Amino acid sequence: MKAAVNNQFKGKLTIQDIEKPIIGVKDILVKIHACGVCHTDLHACHGDWPVKPKMPLVPGHEGVGEIVEVGEQIKHLNIGDRVGIPWLYSSCGHCDYCLTGDENLCLSQQNAGYSVDGSYAEYCRADGEYAVKIPDNISYVDAAPLFCAGVTTYKALKVSSAKPGDWVAIFGIGGLGHLAVQYAVAMGLNVVAVDTGEDKLNLAKKLGAEVCLDFKTTDVVTEVLSATGGVHASICTAVSKSGFEQSYKVVRRGGKCVLVGLPPEEMPLPIFDTVLNGVSVVGSIVGTRKDLIECLDFAARGKIKAITIEKKLEDINEIFDDMINGDITGRVVMKI
Ligand code: NAD
Ligand code: ZN
Ligand code: ZN
Looking at the structure, do residues 143 and 292 belong to the same domain, yes or no? Predict the structure, then answer.
């Protein structure tokens, strides 16, 4: 089968003919129709993080398609079902985290397109217990970004504890951030959007953000504080240390700064301000299967819709270049 393969960190991906996966009794085989390109895939191919991916690697954790084979122990899925294969490829199912609804924190989890091969390919193996069905009225292209960008930002907003009428600031209006704005609006929150360039800020405005700020031309912290008095929560999806610093500084007393983006840097945290202001700084990592089902339901009800740019698997190296340059407005989805 055809796949885009990363053979060495920071090397170009190559389109190769590799073996089609063989499934086990609890697996399914998915014929991939589309796969979103997440900034995490770029971090994986660059070896940015302390925990390294398998190598060679078939990236991709926003793969969607139809089931073509079902392992004999999987009874709730059938050939022909439309499913997606998220970052949370599997978890152990019996540790404290799995038992208490935090399977996304399981220490024994596998991750699609990182510890196991992902969906930049014509076929992808999935754990039948962790692939999630796509509602009938969402197309493959529209569904793909929800399997990471959607569930991650939906979950981050839950983690933020923001309530209807509260202010939330979204830093980074990229693949994740443009969905964060939509989920926040759908949840009744007032939204500040921070990124750079007319395209992204106009998109944020169109999607319902009330205050849109360009981090290259404005004093973001001063502007957010004067417009909102300090936000109840900030969600940082920016791939930049300065974005994290600003997202911390705009939170009001008692508010939450939710860290989502994963630049390979450290974030300085002032102890005095954090203590005196009673600010929480919390990480949020993708979501559970239940979060994913909920986030897909928002799309099925027409409350959110990914802005997608359709490309081909063969375009992957140019897509990565555009991502590095910040030239993508919405989410690129490769049709496979
Ligand atoms: P993306 O490239 O589509 O978007 C990132 C955006 O951040 C871009 O629009 C860029 O212009 C903007 N940006 C850069 N510096 C900024 C700043 N100082 N202030 C505001 N905006 C700034 O990337 P993406 O796919 O949305 O992913 C974003 C990050 O989230 C990546 O690091 C990715 O690995 C991470 N991620 C985390 C999770 C999780 O579960 N926590 C899940 C998926 C992705
Ligand atoms: Zn577990
Ligand atoms: Zn992702």
Answer: yes
pLDDT at residue 259, rounded to an integer: 98
Contact call for residues 41 and 60 (beta carbons, < 8 A): yes
Confirm if 106 and 122 have CB atoms less than 8 A apart: no
- Report the CATH number that the domain containing residue 194 is assigned in CATH: 3.40.50.720
Going by C-alpha positions, the residue among 13, 295, 322 that lies closest to residue 154 is 295
240 burial (CB, 10 Å; 0-12 / 13-18 / 19+) is middle
Report CA torsion sign: 328, 65, 43, 102.
positive
CATH code for the domain of 317: 3.90.180.10
Query: What's the pTM?
Result: 0.98
Instruction: Return the best residue to mutate from 151, 176, 244, 295 for the ligand 1 pocket (most ligand atoms within 8 A of CB).
Output: 176
Q: 156 CA to middle of ligand 2, Å?
A: 20
What pLDDT score was predicted for residue 324?
Answer: 98
Please work out whether the CB of residue 172 comes within 6 Å of at least one atom of ligand 1.
Answer: yes
At 251, phi and psi to the nearest 5?
-80, 135
For the Cβ of 332 lying below 6 angstroms from any atom of ligand 1, the answer is no
State which residues of the chain have pLDDT below 70.
Answer: none
Closest CA to 147 of 329, 320, 306: 306
Where does residue 107 fall: left (phi above 0), alpha (psi -120 to 50 degrees), or beta otherwise?
alpha
